[in-house]
Design a protein that fits this description.
The structure is a homodimer of 455-residue chains.
Chain A: E1 5-7, E2 17-19, H1 52-59, E3 64-66, H2 69-75, E4 83-85, H3 87-93, E5 98-103, H4 114-126, E6 131-136, H5 140-152, E7 155-161, H6 162-167, H7 169-177, E8 181-185, H8 191-199, H9 207-219, E9 224-226, H10 233-238, H11 240-252, E10 259-263, H12 268-284, E11 289-295, H13 300-303, E12 305-310, E13 319-324, H14 346-353, E14 358-362, H15 364-378, H16 384-403, E15 408-413, H17 421-428, H18 439-448
Parallel strand pairs in A: 5-15, 6-7, 6-9, 7-8, 10-11, 10-15, 11-14
Antiparallel strand pairs in A: 1-4, 2-3, 4-5, 12-13
Helix pairs in contact in A: 2-4, 3-15, 4-5, 5-7, 8-9, 11-12, 15-16
Chain lengths: 455, 455
C-alpha cells in the first residue's frame, strides 16, 4: 500500500530572498494613479500608510530582495512547509496525473498569510510603528497579523467582514488570544462604515468595505499604519517563499509541474506558489501553466474588466490597474470569505492581460465536493478558499485521464479548514447554496465606474 | 533576536518499533480480573472486543514490537513530529530552565491520538473487522479514529461525551467529514445509556459512560469490535513513537531532559512521551523525573486509591488494577474533556505505586493562564488538555528560577486548541469556573466500590 508522500526540505533551505517578479515581467505594470487627480503617483504618496521599506519593495525592480534574518528566524517556527504527493487522491480519481500539493496550513495561524504578516510587522517595528490596522475576510489574514504583531509588540485593530465575523466567531477568539482588537465591519467607528450602513444597514460587508475602514483609521492617526494581506506587489512577493521551496521539493521528488494552481482572492496565495515558476518560464523558457482558481460568485479574472479601479469600496486608496468587478461590488456571502474581493492585484492583472497566466472559476458546491474528496483521501480538511484550488486540480487531473496523459499538477493548499466546520456542516446538510450571478448583477457595478479605462 | 528553535528529524528516523515498557518494569502489573468471577483472566477473554494482534500486544513482555510498514506509511503523513526549544516562553518566564516541547498537533486530527488509531484500525482491518465502536471525550480520540477508519475502509460509531458534544460541535463535523457516525452520550441506543439517563436525565456524560455504551454495542454484534483511545497497555505502547523521536531530537539539540511532563487522562499521552525516557532510567540508570499533570477536578493520581476497578461506568469491562476515583465518578464539566476519566491505566498506576513516576494536579484557571502565555510566546494555541502539561512545565521552570538552577524540561504538547476556542472565549470573559472538589465528593464513589482492593 503506497501512501501519500511527504517531501520535507531542511531548515537551511528556507529561502534567503523573496523573488520579485517585476524584474522579469515582459510588460511592466502600469503606475497607480492618485484617487483625486488621477495622475500617476510616486511611492511617497503611500508614506502615510506604509513604512518606507515596504514602499521601496512595492516599486522595486530588483529580482531578489533579501529576507531579514529576524523574519527568517520567525519563519523557522513552521517553514519550510511540507510538500505532499497526493497518491491517495490520485487513486480516488483513477487518474494518470501526478498531483502534488504544498501545505501552508502548518503555520500557527493556519494559512500562508503569516509569510507576509511577519515581514510587514517586522518592518513596521523597525520604523517605529506603534499600532497597525487591517481588514480580514475569512479571518486568516487577521489571525496571521495578530500572530505577527504579538511577536513584535505592535497593537492591532482588525476590521472583519461581517458575514465572516458571524460565520466564524472562533477566528475572532484566535485573534483575541494573540491580543488583537476585532470589529465587525461595517462599523460605526469610521465615516466609511457609517456611509455603507446608512445605505444598507444589513450589509454583509466585504473586503473592500473593511479596507476602507482600516485605511481611514490609519490615515487619521499619526502613530498608526495600515497593513494589507494581499493585492499589493510587496505582499505577493513575500509569499514567494512558497514557490521557491516548492521548486526545490519538486526537484527532490525528481519531478516538475506542468500545471501550478492557486486559489485566488487578491493574488497573494496564487502569486506565492506561481511567481517563482513563472520566473522559470521567463528566464529559462519553461512552460508551466499557472492557473488562478476563483469563485464563480466573484469572477473578476474570468468576467471582470481590466481598468483602473480603487482597492477599497469607498474610494480612499490609489487607483490600481486591475481586473475588477467594480469597487462597489459586494459578493454573495459564500463561505470562502478570503476570496470575496472585487479586484486583482496589479501584477497578476498584467500577467493575465498578457496571457501569461490562466484563470478558471468554480462554484461553491463543486469546491466543497472536491474538498471532502481531499479530506477523505489525504486526511487534511481544507479551508473553503483552498477548496477552489483542489477543484481546479481535480478538474485538470480528470482532463488528463480523458486524454490518457500523465501530467504533473501542483497546487497550493493555502490553509486548513478547522475554523470552517460550520461550512462543512452546511454542505453535508445540503444547505449550501450556489450563487449564480446574472449578467446584470455582474455588470451593475462596472457600469457605475468613472475611473480611467486602459486601452 | 533568538527565536524558538524547531528540531526536525528526517523521515527515515520514524521509529521502526514501539517500546513495550512491560519488559523493563521492576514490578509487573497485576492481572486483570473477570468482572463477574473476579478471578484473573487470560487474554482470550478480550477476544470479543479486540483483534488478536492487539490482545497479544496487551500482554506481551517483548521490549520492542515491530511497527507494520503500512502503519509507518500512514505515520509519514505527519511524523516525525517537530520538537521545539521554547526560547520565547523561557524569556517570558525569565527562567534559567531550558524548556522543550514535542508537538503532536501536526497530525491530521490535531493530536497524538492518530499514533494508536492508525495501528488499531490497521490490525482490525487485517483481521476482517467491518465496523468499530468507540467513545470520545473532547473529540480528539473520535477524530483520530475517524481519520484512521476512513483510511482503512472500516465503519465507525462514536459515543461522544455529552458535555463535549455540546461544547465542541465542530469536532463532530470533523468526524462526519471522515465518514463516522457520532452520538451524544449517554444515548437511548444502549442499555448502559438508558440506565444512566433514568438516574439522571441531565447527565453531562463521562468517558466511563461512553465506554460502557461503545463496549455494549460492540459486544452485541459479531462483525463489530471496540477500540479504546487510552488506558490499555497496547494503546500506551503505540504512543511511544513520541518519546523515541524526542530522545533523538534532544540528542540533536545536544541536551537531555531532567524532567519530562505529559498531561494525564488515561495515560496515553503521558506514556507516549515518558515511557521511552523511563526505559533509559531502568536500563541505563538515567534519572529523568517523569511527571503526569492531571486536572484538580479529576485527581485520580494525586487523590485516588490504588485498587481494582472497572474501566467503564456501568461495569462491563474487566477489573483493572488502577488509581481510581471510583468508576461511577462523574467529573465536573471542565473544558479539558479528554482528561475527564475516573481511572489510570494499569502500567502507569503500577509505576506511580512504585514511585517511579510523579503526579501533580492543576486547576482549570491556572492551566488556561499557562496556555495563553504559551500561545502569546510560542504562537501555538494549545488544547485545554495540553494546558495542564504547560502549567506543570511553567511551575517547574519557576522553581528552577527560584533555586537558581538550569534544568532541562521537556513536555508533550499533545494537541492544538483550534476546536476549543469557546473555552478560551469563556476564559477571556472571566466565565471559566474552578471546580473545587470537597473531600466528601472526592470519596463518595470510592466508598461505594465493592471491587477487590490491593494490599
Amino acid at each position: 500500500m503506497e501512501k501519500t508522500k511527504k517531501i520535507i526540505l531542511p531548515e537551511k533551505e528556507i529561502p534567503e530572498h523573496w523573488y520579485n517578479i517585476q524584474a522579469d515581467m515582459p510588460n511592466p505594470t502600469l503606475p497607480p494613479l492618485h484617487p483625486g487627480t488621477k495622475q500617476p503617483i510616486g511611492p511617497e504618496a503611500l508614506a502615510p500608510l506604509f513604512p518606507m521599506e515596504l514602499i521601496k519593495q512595492e516599486v522595486s525592480q530588483e529580482r531578489w530582495i533579501e529576507i531579514p534574518e529576524e523574519v527568517r528566524e520567525v519563519y523557522k517556527m513552521w517553514r519550510p512547509s511540507p510538500l505532499f504527493r497526493a497518491k491517495n487522491l490520485e487513486k480516488l480519481l483513477d487518474t494518470p496525473a501526478k498531483i502534488y500539493y504544498k501545505y501552508e496550513g502548518v503555520s500557527p495561524a493556519g494559512s500562508h498569510k503569516p509569510n507576509t504578516a511577519v515581514a510587514q510587522a517586522y518592518y513596521n517595528k523597525q520604523e517605529g510603528t506603534k499600532k497597525l490596522t487591517t481588514e480580514t475576510g475569512a479571518g486568516q489574514w487577521g489571525s496571521a497579523l495578530s500572530f505577527a504583531c504579538n511577536i513584535f509588540g505592535i497593537e492591532l485593530e482588525v476590521y472583519m467582514v461581517r458575514v465572516s465575523f458571524d460565520q466564524k466567531p472562533y477566528r475572532k477568539s484566535m485573534m483575541n488570544t494573540w491580543g488583537a482588537k476585532v470589529f465587525s465591519s461595517p462599523t460605526n467607528l469610521t465615516e466609511s462604515g457609517k456611509k455603507v450602513l446608512s445605505e444598507n444597514p444589513d450589509s454583509p460587508g466585504s473586503l473592500g468595505i473593511a479596507i476602507s475602514e482600516a485605511v481611514e483609521r490609519a490615515a487619521s492617526d499619526g502613530g498608526t499604519k495600515y497593513s494589507l494581506g494581499s493585492v499589493l506587489n510587496h505582499v505577493l512577493m513575500h509569499q514567494t517563499v512558497i514557490g521557491q521551496e516548492a521548486i526545490k521539493q519538486m526537484e527532490m521528488a525528481n519531478d516538475f509541474p506542468d500545471i501550478v494552481i492557486g486559489c485566488f482572492g487578491g493574488g497573494s496565495n496564487f502569486g506565492g506558489i506561481a511567481f517563482p515558476f513563472l520566473g522559470l518560464n521567463f528566464r529559462e523558457g519553461k512552460k508551466v501553466r499557472c492557473i488562478a482558481a476563483e469563485p464563480s460568485s466573484c469572477p473578476k479574472l474570468t468576467k471582470g474588466e481590466f481598468r483602473y479601479d480603487f482597492g477599497d469600496t469607498v474610494g480612499l486608496t490609489p487607483l490600481i490597474p486591475m481586473y475588477t468587478l467594480g469597487h462597489t461590488f459586494v459578493p454573495a456571502p459564500i463561505h470562502a470569505g478570503g476570496l470575496r474581493y472585487h479586484g486583482a492585484g496589479a501584477i497578476v492583472s498584467q500577467l493575465l492581460k498578457d496571457k501569461l497566466i490562466e484563470a478558471q472559476a468554480f462554484h461553491q458546491l463543486e469546491c466543497f465536493d472536491a474538498g471532502v474528496k481531499f479530506a477523505r483521501s489525504e486526511g487534511i480538511i481544507p479551508a473553503p478558499e483552498s477548496n477552489h484550488a483542489i477543484a481546479c486540480a481535480v478538474k485538470e487531473a480528470l482532463i488528463a485521464k480523458e486524454e490518457g496523459k500523465s501530467k504533473t499538477i501542483l497546487f497550493n493548499l493555502s490553509g486548513h479548514g478547522y475554523f470552517d466546520m460550520s461550512a462543512y456542516d452546511a454542505y453535508f446538510a445540503g444547505k449550501l447554496v450556489e450563487h449564480h450571478l446574472t449578467e446584470e448583477e455582474l455588470h451593475a457595478d462596472l457600469k457605475k465606474l468613472d475611473t480611467p479605462t486602459i486601452a
